[in-house]
Structures
1.
Amino acid sequence: MMQNIQMVDLFSQYNHIKTEIDNAILGVIEKSTFINGEAVKQFSQHLADFVQTDNVIPCANGTDALQIAFSALDLPKHSEFIVPSFNYVAAVEVGAFLGYKPVFVDSLLGTYNMDTDKIEQAITPKTKVIVAVHLFGQCVNMDKIMGIAKQYNLYVIEDTAQAIGAKYSSRRGWIRSAGTIGHIGTTSFFPSKNLGCMGDGGAIFTDNEELAQKMRCIANHGQAVKYTYKMIGINSRLDTMQAAILDVKLKHLHKYIEARQKVANYYDNAFKNNKNIKIPVRYESSTHVFHQYTLQTISKEKRNEIQKKLAEKNIPTMIYYPSPLHLQEAYTHFGYKKGEFPVAENLCDTVFSLPMHTEMNEEMLAYICENLNEFLK
């Protein structure tokens, strides 16, 4: 009998490392230091070593990571920040919440990442930040972004929530981890992420010591010393239990990345000759850790039909994302209109994602691919 196929199978992943996870949780309970325990410091250092950055500032979730990053930059009121419209909402909502204006840019067909050729035309005297989102698991063109940032004296915040562990190879000869190239990197440990905890969690990366101290302070109520408040801050902590779980999972992250890449390779080979769908394009400059495996079809109607047919075969699919951010009600007051970012709008109508996780086996993959190819003959 075919095993139940899930978009993400966290329980099976847990079962493979159950003893390690259970011992880590028990260790926290035995020490009962549930806030700012030793596991938080230990995980932060191990993650810093993994991505090769000087500072990892843990926090409560990926959205807080972005808010702390924006807050640390002390931007003038009414500043603008550049961000892709085809994207999850977190970076946009945080910037807008802090009083800044999102300036959207379009995306690229195939890679789904921000079209870096459209950035310069979006820059105004009020532009202060480029949010470089590494969508679905591979790095955006960071050579181009960092070059523009240097030319126009802009900050770069990398949102690497979907690309932890990806490596970017610069045309200048260096190789660095996603999240460590810009001025600040942020990530999320939401359970379904490639490195996910069993609750909420996030982290911030930077090699800039001044920014690191400031972000630690902001995340801790604005205090560097207890009960002494240097600035207005928030309360954003990665709790000890989640840190202990993440520290276990971090040891397996390379293996998890390889498992996801193996699934993606299987999908690629199965669909590469199917003219009714487009497989994701992989940059030569970036490894791809495949947080999602996203296909594109010819129309919204065809996409919806595919989803329905696959659901009848108990094959789940998801749409990331069903509507571009510039057309969402919360952001219409910024004045964007339908048609301004045609690629983003087209992607929202035509993309769908297949199951992608570390526990997929060949039987599942064959079943998914055979059914989709049969339907799209």
2.
Amino acid sequence: MATPEVQLSPPSPQVVERREPSREWKTFWSNPLAWIGVIVLTLIVLFSFVGPVFYHVSAYAPNLGAALSPPNAQYPLGSDSLGRDNLIRLMIGGQLSLEVGFAAALVTMVIGVIYGLISGFVGGATDVILMRIVDILYAIPQLFFLLFLDSVFKPNAVLLVFVIALFSWFGVARLVRGEVLSLKTRDYVEAARALGSSNMRIMIRHLLPNVMGVVVVSTTLQVANAILTVAGLSFLGLGLPPPTPNWGQMLSDSMTYMFQNAWWLIYPPGFAILFVELCVNFIGVALNQAYDPRLRR
């Protein structure tokens, strides 16, 4: 009797060299830097967003009779030159700094991923042209462009987000492009193409999940860069106009009273920026260790 012919199904393009999320997260949470970064950053977020719910004080009403008051029962963190409560202004300023920082990092990630994915997957002349555009944009001085926008448009949070993202997505695009150039020659991509998958499906279903490790790490570091950029621009007077408080502007205003021993104006916003930067970088280091097999324990 003839042996029945066994029909072998073609290899599924879903057999992708994907990392195990459980192992990545286990590695991430085994890093003490991750715990420090997550806990302290969570406390800062709660301080900025939940604090004003319980601390019912105006951040804008001046009280010239209490100007430059040191910390006391009425002003737990002192008052500024106009007699405004420094504690509530630190909370409100944290909201703006964190919102702009995280939003700018998200926009940066979206632009960089799309640009790098297309450039690396299409390749050829398209890749060369797209990368030369990145090189040209890299050469534009960020501060000069910000000065130009500040003179033409009235600064606002949305404009600040897109301006920061406009000068931040180049590195993400290059990282994604490099990963895609390496991944698009893998067997599972060739199998998907042989089965008739469209280019869009290959990019979204097979390439994008495998570059997310690099994207997550890079985006985390972009949050720190964006928050620092917001603080720097506000320190230079290019951020949001008063009376909207933010940490950079508070730090800039405090420089006038540096030699008057008004430490409550200088150290709180300075340490707030420092702690956020350290926490985000700690999380970025832990994520990099979790996603990079060479650094994984």
3.
Amino acid sequence: MKKTFAILYVFFNMLAFCGAAPFVDPNKTKITIAVSNINIGEITRAIGGKKVEVFIIVNSLLQPDFVELTPEIIREVEKSNLILSVENEKWINKLKIEAGTLGRIYKTLKTEGDWMIPHIHARAADEIKTILCTLDEENAQYYEENCLKYLYAADFAASAVKKELASAYGVKVIANSQIKSFLESYGFEIVGSFGKPKDLTKKRFEYLLKEGKKQKVKIVVDNLQISAATGGDLAKSLGAKHIALSGNILGKSYVNTLKENAARLKKALESK
């Protein structure tokens, strides 16, 4: 009994100290991980490979302020060893209450910024890799190798995209506020921005139209996860090209999503 108590004492002290404990798996099964969004999920799948099983709570075509915690979500989280989320997803606090914390490790990822921007995406991948290596030291080398392969592929694609969008520097656009940072990272100049469809009021529309004409904006960019059509009327009024980019990974591939975004931007640049 004393020995059992001592083991539990050490275990819970480890939790208190670093917020996580090594993954103990005598049967060599996978680490079951629940993640809050598609970006975390696809990076975790790529780095975790055959050693992890990932449940994604919010799919790629949604970007909600509030997530309805259905019985299915609760069941999947209850089966998970690890739950990953980001700072602005406050609904995770309710999830902790509904699914409980006993036997589960909740980790809030610290990587800030738009994860579609290559250098930020690389930081996020490294952070997730570090968590997996810490929890499952036995397979740390496997995670390290998978992460290196993932980052190499992402860096190769990012370099190609940078060359494709070389003509973007200084091009003036109006864009959804959540795609703004991604565009700025490639040199676009944001003249004005808008949020959700309900936030593009008549007054805001008129302001953006005035600024767009004055600055000779040629491209209006929507965020696919919010609405692909919000800026359509504005683009038409400006005689500008209208496109929608994804702020999240689509089709289980960051590289392909990055290339698709770049292709849409390049086409818009060529026709401006």
4.
Amino acid sequence: MKHLIGIILWFVTVSGLAGAEPDTVSAAPASAPAPGKTIYVIPVREDVSAALVYLVRRGVKEAIDANADAIILDLDTNGGRVDCTEQIIAILNNFPHQDQLYAYVNTKAFSAGAFIASATREIYMAPGSVIGAAAPIMLVPGGGAQEMPRTVEEKMTSAARALVRATAQRQGHNAAVFDAMVDKDQGLTVNGEEIVPAGKILTLTNLEAETPYGAPPRNLLSAGTKANLDAVIATIESGNARVVNVEPTGFEQLARLIVLCSPLLLAGALLCGYIEFKTPGFGVFGIAALTLAAVYFFGHYVAGLSGYENAVIFIVGVALIVTELFILPGHVLPGVLGAGLALYALLRAMVDQYPTDAVLPTLPQLELPLYKMGVALVIGAAGIIALAGIFPKTPLYGALVLTKVNPRRPAGADGQPAECVNVSVGARGRALTMLRPAGTADFGDGPVDVLTQGDFIQAGVSVSVVRIEGPTVIVEAAV
């Protein structure tokens, strides 16, 4: 019995312990680290040119679309064009988190590179890196840097100083530092010590750039020296940062070339379109004109300047022009509306409207597109004038505008076009179709293929034969 009671007590005790709540709470499974900031790194590692503008534009666009927290510019440049620098600064101004713009001077940031650095809130520098020497210079193709006339130098220096001073002040930098980088007459003295005398352009090493001054003390320009880009990222986000490196793509490099050559593309499309309108049917020049237009829109789309909607607007405009010329001749509205839509699409494709998407671009946005359009029109008009005088006299012109078989022309028994045996020089007749410049006319013995000397003649207008070259009957409007 004692043994039975002992077994029962042991069973109750063990069961109670098994069902009792534990005195300690078991540890919850470790959760994944909270995501940190999203940081976009944009390299500025080449001369500041239009190509770099496109890269920075895409990087900032992607950062905005991804709701990125910060942008770092990885600077290693000797400088470049002032106009491109202004565009890059304007693009950086679109980033909504202006206090999260950073620059890392990786080796050097000369001239335009220093300007771009002034557009960021904090500047970090690599050991042994330098920044400065931002005075404008004049570059002559094939001749390198040239000395500018004094008046021109003062004008350019004043404009550059104003630009960088306003940018530096907006981001909280010491504007006097950038003044001394641009204007050699300024000099710079800090804490009673002359950093650079008047008459010399300021260039700072990483140690000089972080010299403390003022009360309370603050660094002269650099927020600190960092061994590498990873150290800068760690300063911005000590947690699990998501870093996106922006690099140029092959399509972008091709697009940059296309955008730079856009006036030539437009002029070529205009010339090919002119030749196509001067020849019947649709041939190689029409295909060439459409191809050049497609390349134009493709380049601006990939470069980030344009969307596909501009190409659609252009196609609608061209369709209306074709309707005016071939379907509803004499109706002015389709042609005028089509020309307006085509011109609007061509101009709007060259306008950077990001981040806004206004229907009508502003006047400053139109300055460069209008200039490129003007260049294209001048080249195209000169080519058309030359072609109008020379092309109709070449054998190629006759080969293009007259086909071997034309359904409108009576055929002989062997199926080949009949000779114009009943037409002679001086014969008068009437245009049966519109001559653009090829078409058919009737001289009293049925329809005959004819060709003008380049003029368009409406159907029903009296014409007279100027000359006959083999099977080619050349006419003009009869007086």
